[in-house]
From TrEMBL:
CDD domains: LPLAT_AGPAT-like
GO biological process, one term: phosphatidic acid biosynthetic process
Entry-linked InterPro entries: Plipid/glycerol_acylTrfase
Keyword hit for Acyltransferase: yes
Protein known as: 1-acyl-sn-glycerol-3-phosphate acyltransferase
GO MF, one example: 1-acylglycerol-3-phosphate O-acyltransferase activity
UniProt cross-references to SUPFAM superfamilies, sorted A to Z: Glycerol-3-phosphate (1)-acyltransferase (SSF69593)
GO CC annotation, single: plasma membrane
Lineage, highest ranks first: Bacteria, Bacillati, Actinomycetota, Actinomycetes, Propionibacteriales
Pfam families: Acyltransferase
Every Phospholipid/glycerol acyltransferase domain range: 66-184
Alphabetical UniProt keywords: Acyltransferase, Transferase
Species name: Propionicimonas paludicola
């Protein structure tokens, strides 16, 4: 009989770069073979392209449903975020624009690895949160960018959130782990994909924070609760980004709906 402990993350070999630990050691949790092969190749490729500055993701639960929220700074950051999560023991199921599922190869891989399409602007958009909640109930790690798109802030700070992440968190009760990242935007800047700028060699940095406290809002479905939850989520992410940038975040926050920074909602 196989022990239930067999798939727990094993102690990692001592190394200055945790991403150089073999995947079979860093993450032995069962997953679709296609997903494991894809991640192994992507990890090798990313190690060639950039350096890494990761924390140990001590706040990321080793098992059970969890929502990971992060700032979105580049089309190059999703594979790097996945790299960070997989090598810290979790296989991400990310919510992404449904248009990607129509792209040859990318769409096939997204389906094969269980990623979750979001058909924004349609009646089916809410289905993504249904599928995400089902994934959480099955003990999965669900990744969502609260901003919904690559930031349009002129200085690449996190923007105001869309309601999806907060809505999912309040409905599911799953822990919400904020992750701040920086560096992918220097490899592929702007809101449009392009050729990566690999010289000079860049460092991609990640920090995770303590679970966002939403206990007083759990179970509520009103707009005020969702707005408050969203503000707390983005405040936690922004704090981590400020640490990585060694800067203080602006007093106001960019709102893509009006095309400028607006006062932040009190996140208390």
């Amino acid at each position: 009989m196989t022990s239930t402990d067999d798939h727990r993350p094993q102690p990692l070999p001592i190394t200055s770069d945790p991403a150089r630990v073999p995947l079979r050691i860093a993450n032995s949790t069962p997953v679709q073979p296609t997903y494991r092969r894809l991640v192994r190749f992507a990890g090798w490729l990313l190690r060639l392209m950039v350096d890494r500055d990761w924390d140990d993701a001590a706040n990321l639960p080793a098992t059970g449903g969890v929502i990971v929220v992060s700032n979105h700074i580049s089309y190059f950051d999703p594979p790097n975020l996945a790299h960070y999560l997989v090598w810290n023991g979790r296989w991400p199921r990310a919510l992404g624009k449904a248009d990607l599922w129509q792209v040859p190869i990318i769409g096939r891989l997204a389906r094969a690895t269980g990623q979750i399409p979001v058909e924004r602007g349609t009646e089916r958009a809410k289905d993504a949160l249904v599928h995400a909640r089902e994934a959480l109930e099955q003990g999965e790690c669900v990744v969502i960018y609260p901003e919904g798109t690559v930031t349009a802030d002129p200085e690449t700070w996190p923007m105001t959130p869309r309601p999806g992440a907060a809505r999912l968190a309040l409905a599911s009760g799953a822990p919400v782990i904020p992750v701040g990242q920086w560096g992918a935007n220097l490899v592929m800047p702007g809101k449009h994909p392009g050729w990566p700028k690999l010289r000079p060699r860049r460092t991609v940095s990640f920090r995770s924070g303590a679970p966002v406290d939403l206990s007083d809002l759990q179970g509520r479905t009103d707009a005020e609760a969702e707005a408050q939850a969203g503000a707390r989520i983005m405040a936690a992410v922004t704090e981590l980004v400020a640490q990585l940038r060694h800067e203080t975040a602006p007093a106001d926050v960019y709102d893509i709906r009006v095309g400028r920074r607006v006062p932040r909602l009190d996140a208390r």
